[in-house]
Design goal:
The structure holds two protein chains of two kinds.
Chain A: H1 28-58, H2 63-91, H3 94-114, H4 119-147, H5 153-181, H6 186-207, H7 222-230, H8 233-247, H9 252-262, H10 270-295, H11 297-315, H12 322-350, H13 356-385, H14 387-416
Helix pairs in contact in A: 1-3, 1-4, 1-5, 1-6, 2-3, 2-4, 2-13, 3-4, 3-6, 4-5, 4-13, 5-10, 5-12, 8-13, 8-14, 10-11, 10-12, 11-12, 11-14, 12-13, 13-14
Chain B: H1 3-6, H2 22-54, E1 65-67, E2 74-79, E3 88-92, E4 100-106, E5 109-113, E6 116-123, E7 129-136, E8 141-146, E9 150-156, E10 162-170, E11 179-187, E12 193-196, E13 201-204, E14 207-208, E15 215-221, E16 226-233, E17 236-243, E18 248-254, E19 257-261, E20 267-274, E21 282-289, E22 295-297, E23 309-310, E24 315-321, E25 339-345, E26 353-356, E27 359-365
Parallel strand pairs in B: 1-4, 13-18
Antiparallel strand pairs in B: 2-3, 2-27, 3-4, 5-6, 6-7, 7-8, 9-10, 10-11, 11-12, 13-14, 15-16, 16-17, 17-18, 19-20, 20-21, 21-22, 23-24, 24-25, 25-26
Classes of the chains: A mainly alpha, B mainly beta.
Chain lengths: ~425, ~375
């Protein structure tokens, strides 16, 4: 049974409305959190989109230096995920911890303006921004899971992820629009990004209610809290399944590169691949979330991986045409919609309210770590066997692993009850 | 931080604090949020208007000008005199400093050989439009080719039948933060893209190598089929020699960028990265002798980030901004930067001198037979 679902909705939305309509009612809190993410993502993706150009053309960093900065800042996010989660769980101040994370990120946009002439402080600013991103994510996901009306966990995460992805799609668009109109106006991009981030932080401050659920507060140190969670059989099995699946998942960038290698479509359309996947994701996030509430999140996650396998299969076609490419993007977007938020919804049913943020952070860390292993492995195999054989290897391995993961999910559900 | 974000009002407890009813607190914070939004919208509007207004060339020093209608032998280049002719393609006579003749074409990069030229243009709009104009000796535009991204480099083969065009393609940041270059070969007679270099087989010592991050740029033609170019992968750059018909390139040498083949085909001028720890890379010009494999640095010690052009078998031309900095790798975003063309001996001796003031992207046009 669900051990930690919040009975009382905290938002303004009606709880008992029927699950009809285009968008399920998930409560004002979830929508407000989604809007916070939307504005924050517009802001941060604006900056990320122009950063490579800014660093290499304006500051004249080499591709290697850029790669080092990029890799390090990604690692920082993974490391701070757990730290933010433990603080949030120990203090029960999910909103405050998330607020701190969003506010620091907003401040970093002004910081980028201030340090724009030299790359060393700039790298520091990017680090701080990534730290803040790690800090805010688990308490935010906890707030979503704790604000979701009963039986609507999947829908709540679906609504949040759809809004979040909308921001991620709009951000680069806004940034490039501005750079096209005013070439070289990087400082304007940073300033506008700051303003947009402020609106996001404002929404969180004003429209998201605090949640301090009852339950014992644990005052163990970081490792104790994590170790205790990992000893829970239900969560351990969930983590194992997530790790297994994500290690065998090909990262998006590699899927696009393979597509480009195997088809004769013009490279000018390359950036559209990212947009295509994101649009499919945001279109399907809510329906798949509702589906998870209806037939159970495990089935939806498993279905998501079947979509992914179909996408890999299409990659093997000889010279895939426009239709096949669109199909790959739709399948990829569908896979994200069926797994990303739904996995968090699933984890929310496994981890008790007292350690919700830490539990969700563990899942996020395991997913991020496995994907790192996956992309390293894919790159290694590609340079030895070429694209086709590498895709076949991942396809076969994932096909074998999927039933194992499904059994792990089922065992996780059994050990919970 | 603005009021809405920081929350100046007391934290609303179950009954409100400081005796203020909760509904009032709520109303106040919503009002503060609305205020924040108004301020943000105002700041964004002012920023956009100012940024868009600030671009465009400034007025500069006068250079004698005339209108050109036909290419004769001499130097074709992009005018950067910060006057109305800024960005237009111009012709200089045999003696530098003579009256320049302005052509009808506006380009960010150009190349000309064998009676045909390519002019890479940027039309700014809501979504900018990048294209390559193929023009003849009378500057008639014969065809327009759509480009996938920001113009970077172009070279026309000696016969004037084929061109290589490199653009920067901005990856969408949703999943991938990298930008990359795309180089394609275009048949100038038909306007068709013949080959995209991404599809080429890359070999090293004869055996095939793969990588996910191959990027090509800076093509220089020996003839319609044989060419040299830069291959960038895993943070390093290589000189590659290519065979267009066989769709194959062979890695020849490492740590060099933007090759330029001498008119006699015996040497390659290139820019060499000078790494200084984690700081920005600087570029040093050098010349490689293809037969012996010897290379030597040129007298120019400043940071030159340009694909150089051979003025003749003894002298090399390149652009620097007027304050001696490297010219931008791409002209996008750098619309109104004053540059000068410099010349330095290919032998590595002597010292660099200004060749043409207010010019960039040179192309040496041979006298037609």
């Amino acid at each position: 049974m669900y051990i930690s679902l919040r009975r009382r909705p905290s938002g303004n939305g009606p709880v008992d409305s029927p699950p009809d309509g285009l968008v399920p009612s998930v409560g004002g809190n979830v929508v407000a959190l989604g809007l916070t993410s939307l504005f924050t993502d517009i802001s941060s993706e604006m900056v990320t989109a122009v950063l490579p150009l800014y660093l290499t053309f304006e500051l004249r960093l080499s591709a290697t230096q850029f790669g080092v900065i990029d890799g390090l800042t990604q690692a920082v996010t993974a490391l701070t995920l757990l730290a933010g989660a433990v603080v949030a769980d120990r203090s029960r101040r999910y909103k405050e911890v998330a607020f701190a994370g969003y506010a620091v990120s907003a401040g970093c946009k002004v910081g980028l303006l201030a340090v724009r002439s030299s790359w060393m402080p700039l790298t520091g600013m990017l680090f701080l921004d990534r730290t803040a991103k790690g800090l805010r994510t688990p308490p935010r996901d906890s707030l979503i899971s704790l604000s979701a009306p009963p039986g609507r966990l999947g829908s709540a995460f679906g609504v949040h992820r759809a809004l979040d992805t909308t921001g991620a799609v709009l951000g680069p668009f806004v940034a490039f629009l501005l750079l096209f109109a005013a070439p070289g106006a990087y400082s304007s991009v940073f300033l506008i990004s700051f303003c947009v981030a402020l609106v996001g932080v404002g929404i969180l401050a004003v429209f998201v209610d605090k949640i301090r659920d009852a339950g014992p507060v644990h005052d163990r140190v970081l490792f104790g809290a994590v170790a205790e969670l990992v000893r829970m059989p239900a969560l351990r099995r969930l983590l194992a399944a997530a790790a297994l699946l994500n290690v065998l998942t090909i990262s998006d960038a590699f899927v696009y590169l393979t597509l480009q290698h195997r088809s004769s479509f013009q490279s000018r359309f390359f950036p559209l691949l990212f947009v295509g996947t994101a649009v499919a994701y945001l279109a399907l996030a809510v329906p798949f979330g509702r589906l998870a509430d209806g037939i159970g999140p495990r089935r939806v996650v498993a279905g998501g991986y079947v979509l992914l396998l179909c996408a890999y299969g299409s990659l093997l076609l000889h010279d895939p045409g426009p239709l096949a490419i669109l199909a790959v993007l739709a399948l990829l977007g569908g896979y994200y919609a069926a797994t990303d938020g739904v996995l968090m919804a699933l984890a929310s049913t496994v981890v008790g309210v007292d350690r919700r943020a830490t539990g969700l952070a563990l899942v996020a860390t395991v997913v991020a770590g496995s994907r790192l292993v996956s992309s390293t492995g894919f790159g290694f195999l590609w340079s030895r066997m070429g694209p086709r054989a590498t895709v076949v290897t991942f396809l076969v391995a994932l096909t074998v692993a999927l039933p194992v993961a499904v059994r792990l999910f089922a065992a996780s559900a059994r050990s919970r009850s | 931080m603005s009021p809405g974000a920081g929350g100046p009002s007391p934290k609303p407890g179950p009954h409100g604090s400081a005796g203020v009813p909760r509904a009032t607190l709520r109303r106040r914070s919503v009002l503060a949020f609305v205020g924040l939004c108004v301020v943000c919208v105002a700041v964004i509007t002012v920023t956009v208007v100012r940024a868009v207004h600030d671009r465009g060339p400034r007025s500069g020093t006068g250079v004698a000008q005339d209108e050109a209608t036909q290419i004769s032998s001499g130097l074709l280049f992009r005018d950067t005199t910060l006057q109305r002719s800024f960005g237009r393609l111009a012709l200089a006579g045999a003696s530098p400093g003579a009256t320049r003749r302005i052509t009808p074409l506006t380009c960010s990069r150009a190349s000309f050989a064998g009676g045909r030229g390519v002019c890479l243009t940027v039309k700014r709009n809501i979504i900018s439009n990048y294209s390559a104009l193929v023009f003849n000796e009378r500057f008639d535009v014969e065809r327009t080719i759509q480009l996938a991204g920001i113009p970077s480099r172009t070279r026309v083969s000696p016969s004037g039948d084929t061109a290589a065009i490199t653009v920067f393609v901005l990856g969408h940041s949703y999943a991938d933060h990298k930008f990359s270059t795309r180089t394609s070969f275009v048949d100038l007679r038909s306007g068709d893209v013949v080959e995209d270099m991404e599809q080429f087989t890359v070999t090293k010592d004869g055996s095939r190598v793969y990588s996910l991050d191959f990027n090509f740029w800076g093509v220089t033609f020996a003839n319609d089929n044989r060419f040299f170019a830069t291959l960038g992968t895993a943070g390093r750059t290589y000189l590659v020699e290519g065979d267009l018909a066989a769709r194959r390139v062979e890695i020849v040498r490492d740590d060099m960028e933007c090759p330029s083949l001498s008119p006699d085909g015996s040497r390659i001028a290139f820019k060499k990265p000078v790494h200084s720890g984690l700081g920005p890379v600087r570029w040093r010009l050098a010349v490689l002798d293809l037969a012996s494999g010897d290379e030597h640095e040129l007298a120019e010690t400043r940071n030159v980030d340009d694909q150089v052009v051979w003025l003749d078998d003894e002298r090399i031309l390149y652009a620097l901004t007027s304050d001696g900095e490297a010219t931008p790798s791409t002209d996008d975003g750098q619309a109104s930067i004053a540059t000068d063309l410099w010349v330095t001996p290919a032998a590595g001796s002597g010292r660099p001198e200004v060749y043409v003031h207010g010019a960039s992207s040179p192309a040496v046009v041979a006298a037609s037979p």
